[in-house]
Write a structure and sequence with these properties.
The complex is a heterotrimer of chains A (about 325), B (about 650) and C (about 475). Helices cover about 75% and strands about 0% of the residues of chain A. Chain A has about 325 residues and is mostly helical. The model of chain A has no long low-confidence stretch (mean pLDDT about 85). By secondary structure, chain B is an alpha/beta fold. Chain B contains 21 helices and 24 strands. An 8-stranded mixed β-sheet of chain B has the order 6-7-8-3-9-10-12-11, sandwiched between helices. In chain B, strands 18-19-20-15-21-22-24-23 form an 8-stranded mixed β-sheet, sandwiched between helices. A 4-stranded antiparallel β-sheet of chain B has the order 2-1-4-5, with helices on one face. The longest helix of chain B has 18 residues, at about 185-205. The radius of gyration of chain B is 26 Å and the shape is globular. With about 475 residues, chain C is mainly alpha-helical. Chain C is about 65% helix and about 5% strand. Chain C has a 3-stranded antiparallel β-sheet. A two-stranded antiparallel sheet of chain C has the order 4-5. In chain C, helix 11 (about 325-360) crosses helix 13 (about 375-410) and helix 12 packs across helix 13 (about 375-410). Chain C starts with a strand and ends in a 6-residue tail after the last helix. The chains are: A mainly alpha (about 325), B alpha/beta (about 650), C mainly alpha (about 475). Chains in contact: A-B, A-C, B-C. The interface between A and B is medium-sized, with 28 and 37 residues.
């Protein structure tokens, strides 16, 4: 088992390298440093010297993969690929275009992101599972049909409407909570309450329907019939047999996205003015700060791969079929 | 037998229907204390539905339930759900066919057994655990304490079925319902489970409702037998009377269709589906005695003796097996001597690899150093239990699975078995697969299916001649020409298997590999397919490699038989001799595990086949063999020829002379 | 010389091509999928949602026929306007041309905010000016117009229904063999006179739901048309444009996102998924590596990065695009391609897994025993047996893509800001909500337009899955 997990961890390295190379190609080869400089300086007053100056000040004045002016190893290491891309493996993300240290920024912003994403995730998981179990309890009845249609309707509403509508009604009209903003520490509860609630509500439609189908699949299996033949009542069958089996895909699926919670939610954070990683990304995109975007791509993929690895562990943990084979 | 005592369970006019049609129609029977009632029927006869109806576990699609099920003065169909739950797993226990999937994979065996004990015997704590391990002990599981902690994945198929039985016994039931409890198991394991059921029933004086499609199982277990056909009981009789004088035409034909009893009579047609609304006797469409009354009127019970009744309009007509029936079958001696196919030292190994780019470090040998010959017009049966590698061997000969070493000699030329096949080889050998539902592409018409080989191998480039050959083929397999434009889902299992045979024959091969062509089919249809193969073999001079798990069938149809165990052929030679005087202990065990019509319970073979992942050292069979000694534990026996021309791989063959 | 010149934008061409392709595929597989279609068209929800989707689809298609108007000739050289219109624009001319100065509430007669005006006595007073559209209409006309429109629409709907029924019946009579006629329902239902509904080709077609939906839809459309001629039904936006027009024009953008991205996804997912599953070995390893890598990158970031790059490309090569329409069109196309490229991994994984299973089935083995070449096994055996999965996955993804457009436009990496789209409408509405008094109608219009489309698509997807997936639970 340990060997298997180590192997899975090693498997992540070529993928992370692939991500690294792909983003490097996108950002430096499709779009040359000249283009970036031009975009930042404005197309109107382009001046070759100004471009070179900008590139130099931001460390973009190196060849892509091979430095002819250097010898030995430096010919390979003194390049954009090593400086700007491979360096991320050591968590050196460099400076953003407005001159701030990206790594520090990320450290500061992870907390606020997590303070919304984590509670929203946990409450959402609980809500969705309970609602799904309720529908499965009443399966094949009118209530189930109506429940499914409501779920479909809920998931047909764009996330933007949940945020805009919720913010408008609860914060703007009723003034229960502040419209937006954030303070560090315990006092932040007033600010994170609404974003969390909205994230949970926005996820109900999808989650409830998905979990319902998982439980329904389990309930059709042979072991459920065996359990019925033992004389167990419906609630025992549902909570002991079906839930335990259904939780395997649900929990492992949840573990997959767990690390990604650090990344926060793009929309919620930028609408509610939370200084998290989600709004960091949105700001970076809107100000076309490629250095930040690259760093976030790297972190995002690394977190995703950690999630995949955790899934392997989780499978081993909850499923005896994997744990003991 | 005390007739006065009221029966344990009495089913009265039970009718089950969906909106599509009637599944079970006006069923009447009863089960007494300490007695086994066997409900015998083919697939689609409604026997499982009847069992589920007793426990009220029917699927939602069954919308109409009529009649009554009497149990200790109560009607089960009218009980409130809470009372019903007390009975389920309590006074009435049930075991299902699907032992492999019937246990919850994420709960330990102990938890699943204790759940029932807690519910029905109100046990807690230490007594609960003791009762659970007692139950496991009672169903013959060694080291019950340790097993309680195991998960279902740890135990073999036969063991799972034992655990299911233990669970059903948890509530000290008065009635045990067993729905095809051994169908998914190998014969040697089936015998163990049947013995266990019988013993438990005697000890506890339970009533038992056993549902099966296998007359042999019925003969071994029954006190009373009811024959179910298309949702209706045809005949009901005490066991001995049934096997001496079964009277209903359907019962008699069932006997005649069995390979064990020498005739393999085919019953024409198929079981009517519930959607087909027939009037009159449900069997009339397939009965050679049927006349106008049979087709118009549903027959009522005629009682021939105490407890022996049939539903037939002609109880007095003395039915005898088809008059013009030839019993020779495949017994025609092989005329050809030319070896069409010779397989030499064929070995198939699969790598066991964990994932991705890791090189394989471990191999499992599925087919190990096999030698075979097959002549024209000859039938060679390859017999073995599941997992012995017989199907892989068949596929490896055709290079559908790549062998790791070996040679194949075909039509005088020798090929390296590892090389992919040329088209000329492919026209010579073809294959018929096991599952007729998976072997025809559901998106292709019958014409496309039959033409595929001819087009790919270009055996018949001319359009007109191809069309003629298709017509000939489709008539040869007994289907009308119009079916060419239809899709496979419109056909029954037996018809599909005919089409699959026609597909293989389309390129006019000289040899045909049949991989369990009848194991997915009902007894009455099985005979049709066997006879078709026989006729085709005689017409076209085919050599047949017949892969099967059914030793009596092999004995019936094959000139020679080869018995496989864990990847190797342990005994091969003349079918009749092998059947009469098995030389290898395994062959003998296979033979004695098959339930026959005498009263005796079949002999179980201890243990279950080891996995090919970890084959035992020495002779693979030694852990299960009564004659094994230290030699057997250390060295795999080389093949030796017996005086009668058989080959056997055993250090201590049972018949040396 | 005609008065106009057709213009085929990239997305137009691809959309029509896609429709054609889809029809051909549906026709080619009609016999194999018959059972599935039959199960699909017996579900009332499928029929209702399909009708709604058809409405959206026809708006999108009419909006995908573009042309330019001829200007007065200079030196006998034909000159064409640089502005590209679509046939839909021509149909909606009154909505497009009746621009107000600023906001107007739905169905209002006067402007939303007052403007200073010199009164009769010369003093400055705040006046809410009457609107161009609606200002002259009598105050009580709204109900009358709505009812009249509903009546006209209803009549048209009944006519349409009769035409459809009679066409189907004639078709059925010609193609059904004499013995095959299904006997009509013997019990007449209360309030539902026994009507000889056609039973072919789908015997259980829910005609009642169909006709009711058709009737309601045509009444709704009828009264909207009637009202829109005299009022701004959804009001106007900040620069005085009709919000209804904006919303209707957004339909095409949403549909294009859903359809074109799919068109990109399909060959990638099907080709790679089948190859990986069937050939196994290093092909499988490679495909798995590629999709795990792509999956690892957070999709929003990947899309944003690529869109930003593409934006830079368009800005630095302005000469390649001759009009604003074609520039925003190319941006839409790129966006669809990018979405497609990031979206194929899901379907690819499903198809790979399913191919792995099918590959072991006996009919594939039988084909291999005949030496049928691999490409033919893939094409004739595997693809037809996976087609239901592809269909299900496509309709399920569609709504997600429509929703994605709004989010991406909000972040600033969506369609061109000048293009009509729900995302852009929502983006603008954000600030309007914090105004006092609140401007709520543009947001509502976008909400209704989008919600109806996505809901219909989701319901339809559900129905398709139930009909085509043999394992779907009821």
């Amino acid at each position: 088992m340990i060997r298997y997990l180590l192997r899975r961890l090693l498997y992540a390295i070529p993928i992370l390298l692939g991500v690294n190379l792909l983003t490097f190609c996108l950002f430096f080869m499709v779009n040359t440093p000249d283009d970036i400089a031009r975009m930042h300086l404005g197309i109107k007053h382009v001046n070759h010297a100004a471009i070179l100056n900008w590139e130099h000040s931001h460390g973009y004045d190196l060849p892509l993969f091979y430095n002819r002016h250097e010898t030995h190893w430096q010919a390979l290491t003194d390049t954009l690929f090593v400086h700007k891309s491979l360096s991320m493996f050591t968590l050196h993300f460099g400076l953003s275009d407005d001159g701030r240290d990206i790594a520090r920024e990320i450290r500061q912003r992870a907390g606020p992101s997590l303070s919304i994403a984590l509670p929203a995730f946990i409450i959402g998981l609980g809500t969705n599972i309970s609602l799904a179990l309720m529908l499965v309890w009443m399966r094949a009845s009118l209530a189930d049909r109506v429940g499914v249609i409501i779920a479909v309707a809920l998931m047909s509403v764009s996330g933007l409407f949940y945020i805009i509508g919720g913010q408008f009604v609860i914060a703007h009209l009723w003034r229960w909570v502040p419209i937006s903003g954030f303070v560090p520490g315990v006092d932040s509860w007033r600010f994170v309450l609404l974003p969390i609630a909205i994230s949970v509500v926005a996820g109900i439609g999808n989650g409830m329907r998905w979990y319902r189908s998982i439980f329904l699949e389990e309930i059709g299996k042979d072991y459920v019939r065996t359990a019925r033949a033992k004389g167990l009542d419906e609630s025992r069958i549902l909570f002991r047999h079906v839930l335990k089996n259904g939780m395997i895909p649900i929990l492992t699926g949840a573990v997959t996205v767990l690390p990604l919670l650090f990344m926060g939610s793009l929309l919620t954070e930028s609408f509610f003015g939370i200084p998290g990683l989600g709004s960091y990304v949105v700001d970076a995109i809107q100000s076309q700060d490629f250095a930040v975007v690259r760093a976030m791509v790297f972190i995002g993929s690394a977190l995703y791969l950690i999630g995949l690895w955790l899934t392997d562990i989780a499978y081993g943990w909850v499923d005896p079929r994997v744990r003991l084979s | 037998m005390t007739i006065q005592q009221p029966p344990l369970l009495r089913i009265e006019q039970l009718t089950l229907a969906t909106d599509q049609g009637v599944l079970v129609n006006r069923l009447d029977f009863s089960i007494r204390h300490g007695e086994t009632f066997v409900l015998l029927g083919e697939s689609g006869s409604g026997k499982s539905m009847t069992a589920l109806a007793i426990l009220r576990l029917l699927p939602i699609s069954i919308q109409a339930i009529h009649g009554a099920i009497h149990w200790h003065g109560e009607n089960l169909l009218a009980l409130p759900e809470s009372r019903m739950r007390q009975l389920r797993g309590g006074a009435i226990g049930m075991i299902f066919q699907e032992a492999l999937t019937g246990l919850n994979p994420v709960l330990t065996l102990g938890e699943q057994i204790m759940e029932a004990l807690r519910l029905h015997r109100k046990l807690r704590g230490q007594p609960l655990r003791e009762a659970a391990s007692e139950l496991l002990h009672a169903v013959g599981i060694a080291e019950p304490q340790r097993r309680l902690q195991d998960y279902p994945l740890h135990v073999s198929g036969g063991m799972k079925q034992r655990v299911m039985i233990a669970m059903a016994l948890a509530g000290n039931p008065q009635l045990l319902i067993a729905d095809e409890p051994t169908t998914a198991l190998d014969v040697t394991v089936q015998a163990q489970v049947l013995n266990l059921l019988c013993e438990i029933q005697r000890q506890r004086n339970m009533g038992m409702l056993l549902i099966t499609h296998d007359i042999g199982v019925a003969a071994a277990m029954a006190n009373h037998i009811g024959v179910l056909y298309a949702g209706e009981l045809m005949e009901i009789a005490p066991r001995d009377r049934f096997f001496q004088q079964a009277t209903h035409p359907y019962s008699q034909k069932l006997f005649a269709a069995l390979p064990q009893y020498g005739q393999l009579l085919s019953i024409p047609g198929q079981v009517p589906t519930p959607e087909e609304k027939t009037t009159g006797c449900r069997f009339s469409s397939r009965c050679h005695l049927a006349d106008d009354i049979c087709r118009r009127q549903t027959p009522d019970w005629t009682w021939l003796a105490a407890g022996h009744g049939i539903r037939c309009h002609h109880p007095d007509l003395n039915f005898s097996v088809h008059p013009a029936f030839d019993t020779t079958l495949f017994a025609t001696p092989s005329t050809a001597t030319t070896q069409q196919l010779t397989v030499k030292n064929l070995t198939v190994r699969f790598p066991v690899r964990a994932s991705g780019w890791w090189p394989a470090t471990q191999y499992i040998t599925v087919v190990d150093d096999i030698n075979l010959t097959l002549a024209q017009r000859e039938t060679l049966a390859l017999v073995g239990e599941s997992g012995c590698g017989k199907t892989t061997l068949g596929k490896a000969i055709l290079h559908l699975v790549s062998p790791s070493s070996g040679h194949i000699e075909l039509d005088g030329k020798t090929y390296d078995a590892r090389q992919p096949w040329s088209n000329s080889q492919r026209t010579q050998i073809q294959m018929v697969f096991q599952d007729p539902f998976a072997s025809l592409n559901p998106r292709h018409t019958i014409r496309q299916i039959l033409e595929e080989g001819m087009l790919a191998l270009n055996t018949m480039p001319n359009d007109a001649s191809r069309r003629d050959w298709l017509k000939t083929l489709i008539q040869r397999i007994g289907l009308p020409e119009q079916v060419l434009a239809r899709y496979p889902h419109e056909f029954s299992g037996g018809q599909r298997q005919r089409i699959a045979i026609a597909r293989a024959l389309a390129v006019k091969p000289k040899l045909l590999i049949c991989d369990e062509p009848t194991s997915a089919l009902d007894v009455s249809v099985q005979a049709q397919i066997i006879r078709l193969l026989r006729d085709i073999q005689q017409d076209m001079g085919l050599g047949l490699l017949f892969i099967t798990h059914n030793l009596p069938l092999a004995q019936q149809i094959a000139h020679r038989t080869a018995v496989m165990y864990l990847g190797r052929i342990v005994e091969s030679g003349d079918s009749q001799r092998i059947a009469r005087q098995p030389a290898h202990p395994y062959t003998q065990a296979l033979l004695s595990a098959i339930p026959d019509l005498s009263r005796h319970l079949p002999d179980g073979l201890a243990g279950e086949a080891a996995s090919v992942l970890h084959p035992p050292t020495g002779c693979h069979f030694h852990p299960r063999c009564a004659h094994a000694d230290t030699l057997c534990q250390t060295r795999y026996p080389e093949p030796r020829e017996l005086p009668d021309g058989r080959f056997v791989r055993c250090h201590h063959p049972l018949h040396n002379s | 010389m005609t008065r106009w010149q057709p213009v085929i934008l990239w997305t137009d061409g691809l959309a029509w091509l896609g429709i054609m392709l889809m029809l051909i595929l549906l026709f080619a597989s009609r016999a194999q999928m018959r059972a599935g279609w039959q199960r699909l068209w017996q579900q009332p929800l499928a029929v209702i949602s399909m009708l709604i989707l058809l409405c959206y689809g026809s708006i999108g298609l009419v909006d995908s026929l573009h042309y330019r108007v001829r200007l007065p000739a200079i030196n006998k050289q034909a000159q064409y306007s640089v502005t590209v219109y679509s046939v839909l624009d021509a149909l909606l001319t009154p909505l497009r041309t009746h621009n107000e100065t600023s906001y107007a509430a739905p169905l209002a007669r006067r402007a939303f905010s007052a403007t200073p005006e010199r009164g009769a006595g010369g003093e400055v007073i705040e006046v809410r000016r009457p609107l161009q559209l609606g200002g002259q209409t009598p105050p009580h006309a709204r109900t009358k117009l709505a009812l009249r429109g509903a009546l006209y629409g209803g009549i048209t709907g009944v006519g349409l229904l009769l035409v459809i029924v009679s066409i189907t019946r004639t078709f059925a009579a010609r193609t059904t063999a004499p013995g095959q006629h299904v006997t009509p329902d013997p019990e007449p239902k209360f309030l539902w006179p026994k009507f000889p509904w056609p039973k072919f080709p789908w015997p259980k077609f829910p005609w009642r739901s169909f006709s009711l939906t058709l009737l309601l839809l045509s009444m709704l459309i009828g009264s909207t048309i009637e009202l829109a001629g005299n009022f701004h039904v959804f009001g106007t936006n900040e620069i005085g444009q009709d919000v209804l027009y904006d919303s209707i024009k957004s339909v095409r953008t949403g549909l294009m996102m859903g359809c074109l991205a799919t068109l990109v996804t399909l060959p990638l997912a099907v080709g790679l998924g089948l190859a990986a599953g069937y050939f196994g070995g290093w092909v499988d390893d490679l495909v798995q590596y590629v999709y795990t890598t792509l999956n690892a990158i957070p999709s929003v970031l990947l899309i944003a990065a690529t869109v930003l790059l593409m934006q830079g490309f368009i800005e630095t090569h302005p000469a390649m695009f001759d009009s604003t329409a074609s520039r925003s069109d190319i941006r839409l196309l790129f966006l669809c391609v990018i979405l497609g490229m990031t979206n194929w991994t899901g379907l690819c994984r499903i198809l790979r897994g399913e191919t792995l299973k099918l590959r072991e089935l006996d009919y594939i083995q039988a084909a291999r025993a005949f030496g049928v070449p691999s490409w033919r096994i893939l094409w004739q055996h595997l693809l037809p047996n996976l087609s239901h999965l592809i269909l299900i996955s496509l309709v399920m993804d569609f709504s997600g893509l429509v929703l994605a457009e709004a989010v991406l436009s909000y972040i600033g990496v969506g369609v061109d800001p000048g293009m009509h789209s729900w995302g852009n409408m929502i983006n603008a509405a954000r600030l309007e909500l914090s105004r006092e008094p609140v401007i709520w109608w543009p947001l509502m219009a976008a909400f209704i337009g989008m919600f109806t489309l996505v809901l219909a698509a989701n319901l339809f997807a559900d129905a398709v899955r139930e009909a085509f997936d043999p394992l779907a639970k009821r």
